[in-house]
Design goal:
The chain contains 7 helices and 12 strands. By secondary structure, it is α/β, with parallel strands linked by helices.
Length: about 220
């Protein structure tokens, strides 16, 4: 079975999801590397990436376009961001994280995946990185959020209001147990979905991330402003 293209820059080979490496010979998180017709591809592990899990579970909407701008909240050590960078090839990913401990690894990754711009800042305080977003016109095409915080939905809304262009997309990995450990996760997802819609988002997809992530969904959203 040959390569099947799922999205620009993303392929499937049998059960594996692949991106063509922007940094041949390099790895980010110990991922498997395949060489096909002289081209190096990285295997996208859905157990290590919620976006990878969403793709495995049937994601249909792909907004990470070549030359685009992405604000990634909760970028950590750059596992998912590096695959997004592979797919985009050109553009910029503003990688925001509040944890100083992840920065040395993220900085190292950004040396090879040059689209990623590491920013040590609090996603709950969008003003901390305004100067970076202003450098690309003050708006981004995509906001991606993977932040474990009780107010994670408010954080997404705040950043969308500040920086997401009208008609732009958001990918939001919702961690039910981070929001309210006492509630049924299905109730949490319904409540957060309503908050998103009330704030001006259109919900395009809601993808359960089982078996790769427990009590998680990925919302794919369009910002109506």
């Amino acid at each position: 079975m040959g390569l099947e293209q799922l999205f620009p820059g993303v392929w499937r080979l049998e059960e594996r999801i692949l991106t063509k490496s922007l940094a041949p010979g390099k790895k980010v998180y110990g991922e498997r590397v395949l060489k096909i017709n002289g081209v190096e591809y990285r295997v996208w592990n859905p157990y290590r990436s919620k976006l990878g899990a969403a793709i495995k579970n049937g994601l249909k909407t792909w907004a990470f376009e070549k030359g685009g701008t992405v604000l990634y909240l909760g970028v950590a050590e750059g596992t998912t961001a590096s695959h997004i960078a592979d797919a985009m090839e050109e553009g910029v990913i503003f990688g925001v994280d509040v944890a100083p401990r992840v920065m040395p690894k993220l900085l190292k990754v950004s040396e090879d995946w040059k689209l990623i711009l590491p920013i040590l800042a609090d996603a709950n305080k969008p003003e901390e990185y305004r100067e970076y977003i202003d450098a690309v016109g003050g708006r981004v095409d995509v906001v991606y959020e993977d932040v474990a915080h009780p107010d994670q939905t408010k954080i997404l809304i705040k950043n969308a209001e500040a920086y997401l262009r009208k008609g732009g997309h958001a990918y939001y990995a919702v961690k039910a147990r981070s929001i309210d450990v006492t509630k049924d996760p299905r109730v949490v997802f319904q409540e957060e979905r309503k908050k998103l819609e009330d704030a001006g988002f259109e919900v395009l997809e809601e993808i359960d991330l089982e078996p790769y992530e427990k009590d998680h969904v990925m919302f794919v959203l369009r910002w109506l402003g």
